[in-house]
Specification:
Elements (H helix, E strand, L loop, with lengths): L19 E4 L2 E5 L5 E5 L2 H17 L8
Antiparallel strand pairs: 1-2, 2-3
Protein name: DUF6316 family protein
Organism: Marinobacter koreensis
Pfam family, one: DUF6316
Length: 67
């Protein structure tokens, strides 16, 4: 479990689990907002998919980001 504060967090640190999960032989990642993305052929590909997703989110203007 991650016990570090994230940017913008206040109060007690919430429970965290892995963003990655496997259904059958396919891998997915989930976001804080509850969006699941996949399927990917491997966990490594799901990790790349998450990095790409986060890169795109960072490009959005602040007012368009979901918090």
């Amino acid at each position: 479990m991650d016990t570090h504060r994230r940017y913008g967090e206040e109060g007690p640190i919430p429970f965290r689990s892995s963003r990655f999960f496997c259904v059958g032989s396919k891998w997915y990642f989930t976001t804080r907002e509850g969006f699941d993305s996949g399927p990917f052929d491997s966990k490594a590909r799901a990790e790349v998919g998450l990095k790409r997703f986060l890169h795109v989110v960072r490009l959005l203007p602040e007012e368009q980001r979901v918090h």
